[in-house]
């Protein structure tokens, strides 16, 4: 090797070391129970935050595995990931997070889109959970949601909620919806839809019994939300939603987060761990979101008007 | 594949080996296509998890979970034998009912066992690393289960059951009580599947209402892979081929998970697994055809 090339390589490695000090190369492994626009957006949000913090290109190894809806595959993926020794495992939705938490007690796990991490026993407590697991809960701020509906229908008495009784997240949501509604003097009427093909019938069952239909963040309902919208138009029952994406698909309004944003909030936790914080000392976060989406065209078709005050506050008006 | 991933593959392979044995018993021995397993796998897991969470000893919980799943098999057999409902339909009815029953048993769609004692707890103090302990435990369970099943199929009673599957009328003519064999066979089959569910919940940390989906496909795939590699010689070989078939199926899944370098995406997993299983199915046939051709050429 010539002297100049030695000098060159020395210079190169100094450069590399200095850039490594800014952000050394990291391996983030993400996994989700199923592919689905909202969950995919979470993953993309995580990656965006990593890129923003200088983890990109050569400095970031980012993998993604989907269990295609099967818990046995989720379990196998978790073990594969632990064997790959990533710096952090990002586990999206309850079964994926539980599989990962069982597979390793040492590799940091950041969960996301888990509605009730306490019921899922991912963490013993939300503040300073200890151990190797922390993350972001997407428990909806139902009080905010119902307050929004009340602005449309001042003498709101009953809200109908279609949900999948087989989905842990949906059941946690329904329980807290009932609590919140009770405080606000509202009655909840539930309609079970175990499969996406049952969503239409569930929505129809609610017609005549409720002043409004609220579509919660429930994988089954969201995947067939068009059928609820259709029932809303036919029966002139206003349909609201728990996430902004659903407004683009026909719900009248929603105040909430979009899942890309939720991914960004998850990514913030990931970056904190990369910078040296222990997962056990990071509080489990509740997802934040203040986006307000409204859909005037749909409101008209469902026979309701969007109050001026709401329209003025909207962050996005669907055309 | 890393060691940890390989051990995980083995672990889930052994657990589903029990499922494969159950499926073998109904599909091949009794000639009774039984889809109950999609529900009874979850029932075994759900009942076991619910009991463990309420403080019952994990071994007793596993036993109850297994028996609950076995009784689900009895229901399918009853619908078929007592009311002449087609076996496929009868099992679909039971499976559908089990979805609700499983939700009731758990009280919610997901029960976590992450922080609960399990059947593995008594062995945790022995100094074996957790990653090996789980594999050893489920391997012992699957092998003991397999040996007991092989032994059972060699007994007079087991022989009678095999006779029922291969020729019902002949069996009846020889004084075998056909109905009783179907009842026992379905209970045994679903019991094995329920035991697998109970073990899966305890080693994976949760029972979930969706966990049974596709159990029948996985079980059948394992049976067919095992059969295509080993043929059907003795009961002992068959039982072992169920376990090995199940492990090979998991290795196929694992390879599909690692296929990023070929330009595959996570969403291609199902197709990739299907292709790998299909290859394992057609390989023995291609090989024998090739051999036959070669032999023919020699003769000419």
UniProtKB/TrEMBL annotation, chain A:
The keyword Lipid biosynthesis does not apply. Pfam families: ABC_sub_bind. Residues 1-23 form the signal peptide. Keywords: Signal. The keyword Signal applies. This is ABC transporter permease. The lineage of its organism: Bacteria, Pseudomonadati, Campylobacterota, Epsilonproteobacteria, Campylobacterales.
From TrEMBL, chain B:
The chain crosses the membrane at residues 6-27, 39-56, 88-106, 126-154, 182-201, 213-230, 237-257, 269-286. It comes from the Bacteria. InterPro entries: ABC_transp_permease. The keyword Transmembrane helix applies. Keywords: Cell membrane, Membrane, Transmembrane, Transmembrane helix. GO terms for molecular function: transmembrane transporter activity. It is a multi-pass membrane protein. One of its GO terms (cellular component) is plasma membrane. Its main location: membrane. It is found in: Cell membrane. Pfam families: BPD_transp_2 (PF02653). The keyword Membrane applies. This is ABC transporter permease. The lineage of its organism: Bacteria, Pseudomonadati, Campylobacterota, Epsilonproteobacteria, Campylobacterales.
């Amino acid at each position: 090797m010539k002297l100049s090339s030695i000098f060159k390589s020395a210079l190169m490695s100094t450069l590399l070391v200095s850039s490594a000090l800014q952000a050394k190369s990291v391996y983030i492994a993400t996994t989700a129970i199923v592919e689905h626009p909202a969950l995919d957006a979470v993953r993309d949000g995580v990656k965006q935050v990593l890129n923003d913090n200088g983890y990109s290109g050569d400095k970031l190894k980012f993998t993604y595995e989907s269990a295609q809806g099967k818990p046995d595959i989720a379990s196998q993926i978790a073990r594969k990931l632990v064997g790959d020794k990533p710096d952090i495992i990002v586990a999206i939705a309850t079964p994926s997070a539980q599989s990962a938490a069982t597979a390793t007690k040492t590799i940091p796990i950041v969960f996301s889109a888990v509605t009730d991490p306490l019921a899922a026993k991912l963490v013993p407590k939300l503040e300073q959970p200890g151990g190797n697991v922390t993350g972001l809960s997407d428990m909806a701020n139902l009080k905010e949601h119902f307050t929004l509906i009340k602005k449309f229908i001042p003498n709101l008495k009953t809200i109908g909620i279609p949900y999948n009784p087989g989905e842990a997240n949906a059941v946690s949501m329904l329980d807290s919806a009932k609590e919140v509604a009770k405080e606000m003097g509202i009655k909840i009427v539930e309609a079970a839809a175990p499969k996406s093909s049952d969503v239409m019938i569930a929505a129809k069952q609610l017609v005549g019994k409720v002043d409004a239909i609220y579509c919660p963040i429930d994988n089954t309902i969201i995947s067939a939300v068009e059928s609820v919208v259709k029932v809303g138009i036919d029966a002139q029952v206003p349909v609201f939603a728990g996430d902004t994406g659903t407004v683009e698909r026909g719900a009248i309004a929603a105040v909430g987060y979009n899942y890309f944003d939720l991914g960004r909030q998850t990514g913030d936790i990931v970056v904190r761990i990369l910078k040296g914080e222990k997962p056990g000392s990071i509080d489990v976060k509740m997802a934040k979101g203040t986006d307000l989406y409204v859909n005037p065209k749909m409101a008209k078709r469902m026979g309701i008007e969007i109050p001026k005050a709401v329209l003025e506050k909207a962050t996005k008006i669907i055309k | 594949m890393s060691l940890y991933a390989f051990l995980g593959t083995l672990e889930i392979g052994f657990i589903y080996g029990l499922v494969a044995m159950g499926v073998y018993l109904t599909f091949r021995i009794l000639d009774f296509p039984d889809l109950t397993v999609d529900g009874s796998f979850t029932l075994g897991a759900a009942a076991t998890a619910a009991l463990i969470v309420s403080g019952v000893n994990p071994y007793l919980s596993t036993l109850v979970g297994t028996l609950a799943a076995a009784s689900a098999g009895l229901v399918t057999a009853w619908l078929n034998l007592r009311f002449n409902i087609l076996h496929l339909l009868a099992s679909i009815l039971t499976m559908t009912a089990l979805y609700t029953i499983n939700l009731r048993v758990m009280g919610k769609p997901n029960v976590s066992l992450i922080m609960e004692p399990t059947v593995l707890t008594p062995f945790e103090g022995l100094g074996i690393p957790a990653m090996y302990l789980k594999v050893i435990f489920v391997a012992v369970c699957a092998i003991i289960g397999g040996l007991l099943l092989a032994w059972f199929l060699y007994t007079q009673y087991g022989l009678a059951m095999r006779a029922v599957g291969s020729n019902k009328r002949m069996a009846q003519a020889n004084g075998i009580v056909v109905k009783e064999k179907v009842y026992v066979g379905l209970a045994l089959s679903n019991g094995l599947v329920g035991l697998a569910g109970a073990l899966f919940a305890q080693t994976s940390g949760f029972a979930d209402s969706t966990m049974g989906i596709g159990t029948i496909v996985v079980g059948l795939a394992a049976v067919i892979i095992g059969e295509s590699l080993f043929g059907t010689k003795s009961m002992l070989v068959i039982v072992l081929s169920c376990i090995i078939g199940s492990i090979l199926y998991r290795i196929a899944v694992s390879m599909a998970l690692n296929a990023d370098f070929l330009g595959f995406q996570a969403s291609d997993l199902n197709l990739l697994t299907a292709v790998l299983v299909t290859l394992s199915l057609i390989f023995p046939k291609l090989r024998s055809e090739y051999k036959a051709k070669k032999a023919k050429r020699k003769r000419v």
